Amino acid sequence: MVLDVNGVTKVFADRGKNKLVANDNLSLHINEGEIFGLLGQNGAGKTTLVNQILGLLTPDHGDIHLLGESVLQSPARARSICSVQPQSQVPLGFLTPKQAVTLMGKMRLGKKFDPKRVEILFEALDMNKWANKEGEKLSGGAKRLTAFCMAVIAPGKLVILDEPTNDVDPVRRRYLWEVIRNLTNDGTSVILVTHNVLEAEKAVDRVAIIDNGKILTQGTPSEVKRSVTNQMRMEISLASELDMEIPSWTLSSHKKGSRFILSLDPNDISSAIEWAKNQADNGLIMDYSLSPTTIEDAYIELTSKKGDE
Amino acid sequence: MNIFRHYKYVFQMQFLRNAGFLIFMILIQILVSIGIVIGFTYLIPVPDTNAILFLATGAPTIILIFTGLVILPQQVGTAKSDGYMEFLRTWPVNRAVILGADTTIWLIITVPGIVISAFVAHFLFSPGYDLSWTVVPALLMIALTSIGVGYGFSYLLSPTASLALSQVIVFGALMFSPVNFPMDRLPEWLQILHEILPIYSMAEIMRASLAASTFEATGGNYINLLIWCVLGYGGAIFILNKK
User: Fold this and answer.
1) B9 and A103: CB-CB below 8 Å?
2) Angstrom distance (rounded) from CA B121 to CA B202
3) Tens digits of per-residue pLDDT, A58-89?
4) pTM score, whole prediction
5) What domains, with CATH codes, occur in chain A?
6) Counting Cβ atoms within 10 Å, is residue A131 exposed (0-12), middle (13-18) or buried (19+)?
7) What is the ipTM of this complex?
8) In this structure, are residues A179 and A152 in contact, taking their beta carbons and an 8 Å threshold?
């Protein structure tokens, strides 16, 4: 086991003595070579947890073990085991991506560092054209990729990526996921912190959904989905934003602009398809798709259920 | 050794990241220090050698105060607000190494200004420099105190508060501190304040090493700087390691 988080609670008190429970008795563990997704909305407590894993914050209760040793006792060791891509952009100033990534590699490995790795990594992410451009002049995506490279150039046993795909274009996102997957082949574990749930579903081995400082559920993506429902979902693009009659087999529905999402029991699939085809023939809907519940559905279901209480 | 390896690469990272800014700052420092020596002579109708010597031996102190207590806190404030400070804290190195590497960079910025202004003053006015062997350790001690205190308060305070404080310091150091004129011209309460604050001790030690036959510094001055230096760096390391 690479990481073992046991009953971690962290409370912030502001000047007005309001208490914010950022982490509420969190427990999770991460195995070697595993990609673990930490999903949750803004302010759910993901970054607070990460900062405690790195030893930047001390938990009020509970303990965190990295490779069997407590982070509380040796925070400096935690920083050499983990490498991090922070959520905020890294201001590179006059550093070029190549300089920044090479120096980070040398800082971690010293003479053992092989500068060829930088070239291989830049090649894999198709970022050679920026390699020698000053950081200040780079686009947001290029900066984000540079920060990603700084985290993975000489990865520790645990790489923590906080929203790594923000600002990154769709093509390079794919490359990025490949690089992450390759990392784990060498036994490195990855924590992926994100609220981009759809993307995470494809990438992670296991996932925990955090809301208001608590873990609502954790497991493999299919376990998490099953814990919520085994329903199917139908996504429809409406021809106009007018309301349409909701078919009788619908279990739940929600509408966002011209996007209409219905959930249904697997037994009703054939009637649903027939209905959708009719609607399409009559010009009421543009197109439709039917799929098993995604982790996004589970996520929304879980986090909104809590809000209703 | 890990520490040396870390120091080397942290230094390179920090230096290259700020390269453009640093060159600009070195130029500004040279201008400011020459400006102090020449500009202040306009304030005095008939400057005698003694007054010029005061200005010439005060300029390096002003440069060091300017660097450590004004520019540095502004830089730290920016690093704090754009999240760079948080990123630094995740690096796999001892935080004192980061502080050490940064201090080296600040020292490099100040040296050209001090040396060039001393030469300019010497050739224009021959104010009577008389270098003592203490000049290098004295410069180092004053610089470290200034940089250390700058780190201490800018890490401790919010970016806005430390910006405000640094503005007060630059004004106070130029106009209300016994750096460019003798202490006895100040009102008594300010004299007492300056016995505690490090600026007066910095100026005294600097003068004693640049013009050893005219001025001398007391042991108290050295002790004063030592205390401020330790407080500053100690505070900075404490804040960096704080959770």
Assistant:
1) yes
2) 20
3) 999 999 999 999 998 888 899 999 999 998 88
4) 0.84
5) 3-226 (3.40.50.300), 231-292 (3.30.70)
6) middle
7) 0.85
8) yes
